[in-house]
Amino acid sequence: xxxxxxxxxxxxxxxxxxxxxxxxxxxxxxxxxxxxxxxxxxxxxxxxxxxxxxxxxxxxxxxxxxxxxxxxxxxxxxxxxxxxxxxxxxxxxxxxxxxxxxxxxxxxxxxxxxxxxxxxxxxxxxxxxxxxxxxxxxxxxxxxxxxxxxxxxxxxxxxxxxxxxxxxxxxxxxxxxxxxxxxxxxxxxxxxxxxxxxxxxxxxxxxxxxxxxxxxxxxxxxxxxxxxxxxxxxxxxxxxxxxxxxxxxxxxxxxxxxxxxxxxxxxxxxxxxxxxxxxxxxxxxxxxxxxxxxxxxxxxxxxxxxxxxxxxxxxxxxxxxxxxxxxxxxxxxxxxxxxxxxxxxxxxxxxxxxxxxxxxxxxxxxxxxxxxxxxxxxxxxxxxxxxxxxxxxxxxxxxxxxxxxxxxxxxxxxxxxxxxxxxxxxxxxxxxxxxxxxxxxxxxxxxxx
Length: 449
Description:
Elements: E1 2-4, H1 27-59, E2 96-100, E3 103-104, E4 113-115, E5 133-134, E6 149-153, E7 159-161, H2 163-167, E8 172-179, H3 197-201, E9 204-213, H4 214-221, E10 229-234, E11 241-245, H5 248-253, E12 255-260, E13 263-264, E14 274-276, E15 289-295, H6 302-307, E16 310-311, E17 317-318, E18 327-332, E19 342-351, E20 357-363, E21 371-372, E22 374-376, E23 385-393, E24 398-406, H7 415-422, E25 435-438, E26 444-447
Parallel strand pairs: 6-15
Antiparallel strand pairs: 1-23, 2-3, 2-4, 4-5, 6-7, 8-9, 9-12, 10-11, 10-15, 12-13, 12-14, 16-17, 18-19, 19-23, 20-21, 20-24, 22-23, 24-25, 25-26
């Protein structure tokens, strides 16, 4: 199985044209030139196909090899201008529901989350309607004219803000990923071979967020310098509330967001305002934000004494495991896909709650040897990156896997290393390297390394 790091022949840039005298050709000369160019194009195409080999030729779709416009479908009239652009009828994109780790495609009434179709997306930005969803009591559609945000506690000037107040303040827009702490939880103890990458890793999404920096709101309220923790509380019926330490990166990164991907937040994602805590587990990015309270210690809500704690091998529970560790996953080829022998494009996503991704490696022999993948720019702080590489599959069974390294030097662990620290009874923060097995027929399945 060979690793192919060279660009495909058809991506080679054209040579620049040389300057010459004014064009004085006649119509006959034009006709002769066109005929020569056509012959040359046909010859170049034959040379290309012969040189490229069966692998590359097979990778090209038949319409790409069309000889004449007769092979191209005719033009057709389109639909009239609409108020909201719809996806093509040939494109199927949807989230899937889950009620517990690995229990998928359940009735939405019974679901606790829905997952992003990572295997069907390109680039890094997730469409707003495909952002993974996690809620504890449904998604309220709050009236923005009535909703308020209270900022109090260890402050000199307690304030109550409405949405127009926030929009009148200085704002920022940033690209950040958001990840549920339960992402990957189906693989803690076993690997269901029927799972897709949407089902194993679909609790992560990335968007452009816009809103007011937390640091600015803290200045407005006059937060006491001795305050070291902040309580964020949501306006949903469950009253989700989390304690957040006022670390330097929290003070520099956190937004009170009111927009996502250029539009107002959608109800499922916190309309009219939510907290955005980049790099930390998604449940800290409180939706339907209604209160920020500042103090000297964690507020010890039930969400951090009962719900979001991590059982360790020692029998003790870890609280405030807040950062989402460095992670990556190959999205194609991935679970339940089928590939053909020959040239393949390996692609996937990598991210880290500690900062930028510095390197992504991939293996096509189950982790025995590693190769550096190409990372597509931009590479941003606490944002997902798209990585890719060319690979020629020889038709023999094998396993493919990726691992990411962030700018702080954190390396995504293999499964054995992660379990040595966390044990098999943990539920959250699963970031072990994801392995996909490929059988002799090209079938791709989820396996444990």
